[in-house]
Amino acid sequence: MISAINSEIIPENWYNVIPDLPEPLPPPKDSKAEFSSINLLNKILPKEVLRQEFTFKRYEKIPDEVIEQYEQIGRPTPLIRAKNLEKYLDYGGKIFYKFEGATATGSHKINTAIAQAYYAKNEGVNGVTTETGAGQWGSATALAASLYKLPAQIFMVKVSFIQKPLRKIVMNLYNGNVVPSPSNLTEYGRKILSENPDHPGTLGIGISEAVEYALDHDYRYMVASVMNSALTHQSVIGLETKKQLELIGEHADVLIGCVGGGSNFGGFTFPFIPDHPDTEIIATTADEVPKFSKGDYKYDLMDSAGVLPEVRMYSLGADFVPPTIYAGGLRYHGASPSLSLLINKGRIKSDEVNQEEVKNAIRTFANTQGIIAAPESGHAIATMLNYVKAHKNEKKTIVVNVSGHGLLDLSIFQ
């Protein structure tokens, strides 16, 4: 039973940005001649997730069971005015943050994990599998699978597997099985290891392993980001934010979020696209992974092995091996097609900040608001701080998405 307060804020429908894009989204295309990677999606994604991936419907009904689980894991998440930070910055405007770290797994990832696990369970499959970078998505997948009594096999990028041991414990507590990627569980992983036993891993490799594992074990692949269905499920963030702002009589002049593949950012900002044309929207990422400034807007592979279809996106190339920065969720070589199109058309601006700026931003936010943000979210906070400094005399209302807490990422400060 959903409480009266939550029912005012948790939406009944997810929002799909596709009908409101400035031009039609370029469709995916097969990546290899010897088989159809598009048809392969029928074998690895839950059928309902695949339908939602290609729909032109503006809204999708959220199943009642999913809404009930949203409430159980902490939705709606709080929208908080950062008055201490405003005072510290001597800012004449207003700063709000949407705190997705308040969910059970500590990040936004659980929003789509619950939906996908629910649909997979309804199909009666053997289990679910996915990749994870920093571990937030792996944690969300493990919990969502556990809620629906499904086994979960998770391939964690090796460098993060080493850097973030506590994330492995969380996934294990949620009954998930996690291995470093590249691994010996798949043919593709064994191939990579034979060429370089010390390969640090990439999200592209992890995706390839998870897809192969899904095909071999009648599992379903859980989509962390990039694909539009995941961004649609994440729209619960932005829809809640709009309602919360409306209830207190506020209007967002600026929206800022971080981008790995695009799920938290798209979920947070896309619901504002159709009816907030004057709201400035800024996507920020790591300058160590400069997909927007140095990547190409082109058709490229989503995974290293080329099992999944090619999509048109900003990309540094599927074979890009990023530096071992602590923001593991921002190491992905590309960005979602819908976000890429909106950046290409100028509706969304982009920014890139380095790890030192991020550490300083996390420290500032912690010492004013008390929240220790995830390294990924620290990029959004850093961009917000830079924006305030550049617009000190403008009384704008800025809303930033703090997409997760960093309590399991404190090694960044060692």
Automatic annotation (TrEMBL):
Belongs to the TrpB family. The gene is trpB. The keyword Signal does not apply. Tetramer of two alpha and two beta chains. Its cofactor is pyridoxal 5'-phosphate. Keywords: Amino-acid biosynthesis, Aromatic amino acid biosynthesis, Lyase, Pyridoxal phosphate, Tryptophan biosynthesis. Pathway: Amino-acid biosynthesis; L-tryptophan biosynthesis; L-tryptophan from chorismate: step 5/5. InterPro entries: Trp_synth_b-like (IPR006316), Trp_synth_beta/beta-like (IPR023026), TrpB-like_PALP (IPR001926), TrpB-like_PALP_sf (IPR036052). Its EC number is 4.2.1.20. GO terms for cellular component: cytoplasm. It is an enzyme of class 4 (lyase). This is Tryptophan synthase beta chain. HAMAP family: Trp_synth_beta. It comes from Acidiplasma aeolicum. It catalyses: (1S,2R)-1-C-(indol-3-yl)glycerol 3-phosphate + L-serine = D-glyceraldehyde 3-phosphate + L-tryptophan + H2O. Residues 72-404 form the Tryptophan synthase beta chain-like PALP domain.
